[in-house]
Amino acid sequence: MKDRAALFILRDGIAQGVLPGKRLLDASSGNTAIAYAMLGAAAGIGVTVCVPANASAERKALLEAFGAEVLFTDPLEGADGAIRAARGLAARRPDDFWYADQYNHPANPRAHYLTTAEELWRQTNGRITHFVAGLGTTGTMMGTGRRLKELNAAIELVGVQPDEPFHGLEGLKHLDTAIVPGIYDPQIPDRMEFVATEQAEDMVRRLARARGLLVGWSTGAALVAAERLLTALYRPLPPSTAPVVVVIAPDSGLRYLSERRRLAGEGA
Predict the structure, then answer these.
(1) Which of the listed CATH numbers 3.40.50.1100, 1.10.3720.10, 3.40.190.10, 3.10.180.10 matches domain 2-99?
(2) Rounded mean pLDDT of the chain?
(3) Is-above-0.85 flag for pTM?
(4) What is the band of 263 on the pLDDT scale with cuts at 50, 70, 90?
C-alpha cells in the first residue's frame, strides 16, 4: 500500500525537476520510509527519512539494506515527532532536501484513487459494500474512499483509529490528539471505529494461528473493526445480497518478528 503512494510522490518530485538533484526527505512510522528507500535506490535518488526510534528491528534493517539515511526521533512522540524533525531539517537545509511531506502531498491519496479503488472494484465485480482501512497519513482512505463513492455512493467507508493517544499500533494516528494530515477530509469516512492495542494484537495472533496469515498491528486493528461491522450486519442472506467487506492489510507481520513477546501474547 505504501509503495503506491511513495511511487506517485517520487514521480511528482521528478516531474518538478527537484529530484534527483536534491535528496528526498520525509517522516514516516516505517513503511513509507522503506518504500522511499527501495524506489530511491532504483531511481538513483538519495533518501533521508525521520522515523521513531521504536520502529521494529526489521524495518530498521530494511532501511539500512536499501541505503537510506535514517534520523531516529523520540519514540514517545511517535509519528508526530518524526514530522516535526523532518519539517525542521527541511527548513534549515532547503538547498539539500525536497520535503515530500506524505501527510500533505496530494499524490498520496491520488495513488489510491487511481489504483487501489479501481482494483477493488474490479476484483469484487462491483459488489463491495463496505471498505475498512486504518487512518495514518489517511491517504488510503481519502483516495480509495472518494473513488469508491463515485462508483457507488452506497458503499460504507469505515475509518479505524487507536482508542487512545499512547498506543502500539504503528502507522495509525489518534487524530484528536495528533497532527492531522492536510489531506484528511473528515467528511469521507461514514463511520469511525476505535480499537485498543491489545485487541489488535489478539486479532493478529488469532489470524496467524487459525488462518495462517501473519499481518501487522494496524491490520489487526482494521480486522477488529471489520469483525464488529460484520457482527452488526450478520443475518442469513443469499450470497447475492450478503455484504462484501474489504479490509486493507497494509503490511506483513514479517516486519514485526523481533517483537516476539507481542506475537506470542506475552505483553510488551
Answers:
(1) 3.40.50.1100
(2) 95
(3) yes
(4) confident
